[in-house]
Amino acid sequence: MARLSEVEASMAMTRSDFLSAASLFGEAAAALPETDVAMISDQYFKQGEALYQHGARFGVLKSYKRAVDAYTKALHVSKGDSIHDWPMTKNNVGNTLSRLGEREGGAAGRQNLKLAVDAYCDALKLYTKQTMPHEWAMVQNNLGNAYSKLSDLQGGAVRRKSLELAVSAYKQALTVNRKKTRPGQWASVKSNLGNAFVRLGKRKGREGQQNLELAIRAYRAALGVESTATVWAMIKNNLGNTYKRLAQLDRSKAGLKKLDRAIEAYTDALDVYNYEATPADWAMTKNNLGTALAMLGERGGLNAEGHLNLAVEAFNEALTIYTEEDSATDWAMVKANLGKTFYRLGTHYAPRHENLKLAVSAFSDALTVYTKQKMPADWATTDRQLRKALKELEDHK
Q1: Separation of alpha carbons 79 and 64, rounded Å
Q2: Which residue of 55, 290, 303, 343 pairs with 315 in a disulfide if CB–CB is 3.0 to 4.6 A?
Q3: Considering only the top CATH level, what class is 1-81?
Q4: Percentage of the chain surpassing pLDDT 70?
Q5: If 0-12 CB within 10 Å is exposed, 13-18 middle and 19+ buried, where does residue 70 land?
């Protein structure tokens, strides 16, 4: 029975039927005798992998949470008996919590990212540079990602410290993942290092701009190395984010050129990401493209209204993947972006009343997720935007 369930689960994985696979791996674990600790732990580990893949492919937060539970069962059953499986499982727990924390945001997201850091630090107790250098470098890179994402939910000196720890972890990973010997891994870490520089680039003034320029250099270097199509697309998306951030700091014509570069980078990424094969990545890139188009429309010019309408189209496409039930935080983020774009249309272009009504609706939707208790900063911003839209709507009666 257990063997049959495992075989059927493996077949489901090849079809990308991750939820069926997860269920079958769970059945296999339940059918094994309690004394077969290694096999039971292995089935729970595979169940965690299946659920993680479902969460990553479709952006379903519930699947990430279930993956953490499965990995935790694997750790509990094995009780650390397998020195090799234990740190890999800890690493996977970290990866899952890192994704979950990034998507959840707020206090819950911050807590999960801290737990991810703890899991990676546990893994590094057994993965050492001397004994298992490649695994050690992998976890260092993942640790850097967790610190980098954590910084988004922090402020002040604590945020700065997390980014410094992220950069340090990436530099550690690069002592093993060298361009000549491990070019693919090197490119991935360089891209992640670029992400940390982008976050450091949120600082005002020349220092912030210099960090953004360092990020672009890191991305360009990573793009110069042969890698998989999805890694290439990820780097292109990150490059677009950086050019968009530079454009926010530059209201001149040069800033418009940076927005054009951002749009070009997102479009390149969307040549790889698609609705069927990589829906969550496709939706995120569509949202990013929408924000760049909206910024271009807000700058005015001959085709300003056209750019805003293209932004609305991109946001609505993203919402075909992001739902309130499965991807609440991402859904709310896109709804808020949609609201800002309709507000701009409603204050500048006909039909103003209809566009303002759509802005109010989108902001109201976002506030069902952005609550004052759970996500106070997002709530405050979106609530303020809703009030402005309601006032404009009243004035246009």
Answers
A1: 22
A2: 290
A3: mainly alpha
A4: 98
A5: buried
pTM metric for this prediction: 0.89
The number of residues in the chain equals 397
Determine the Cα–Cα distance for residues 236 and 255; give it in Å rounded to an integer. Answer: 19
Domain boundaries along the sequence of the chain:
1-81, 83-227
For the CA atoms of the chain, what is the radius of gyration? Answer: 22
Task: Provide the 10 A C-beta neighbour count for residue 333.
Answer: 24
Q: What tokens does 318 get?
A: 């993203």
Nearest-angstrom CA–CA distance, 346 and 300:
14
Fold match between domain 1-81 and domain 83-227: yes
- pLDDT at 12 > cutoff 60: yes
Is the sign of the CA dihedral 119, 68, 77, 8 positive or negative?
Answer: negative
pLDDT of residue 208: 86
DSSP letters for 118-152: HHHHHHTTTS-TTT-HHHHHHHHHHHHHHHHHHHT
Q: Which residue in 37, 62, 17 sits closest to 325, CA to CA? A: 62
The model's pLDDT over 318-374, given as tens digits with 9 standing for 90+, comes to 999 999 999 999 999 999 999 999 999 999 999 999 999 999 999 999 999 999 999
Residue 217 · residue 190 · CB < 8 Å: no
Q: Do 39 and 32 contact (CB within 8 A), yes or no? A: yes
The H-assigned helical ranges of 59-132 are 61-78, 85-104, 106-123
- On whether the CB atoms of residues 190 and 218 are closer than 8 A, the answer is yes
* Average pLDDT over every residue of 58-64: 95
The two structure tokens encoding residue 151:
């910084």
Q: Specify the DSSP element, H or E, that contains 224.
A: none
Place of tokens 């709804």: 335
Helix axes 37-58, 279-298, angle to 10 degrees: 30
Measured between alpha carbons, how far is 36 from 27 in angstroms, rounded to an integer?
A: 15
Query: Of 73-82, 187-196, 296-305, which range is least confident?
Result: 73-82
Q: Which fold has domain 83-227?
A: 1.25.40
CA 256 to chain centre: 26
| DSSP-assigned states of every residue in 35-65 | T-HHHHHHHHHHHHHHHHHHHHHH--HHHHH
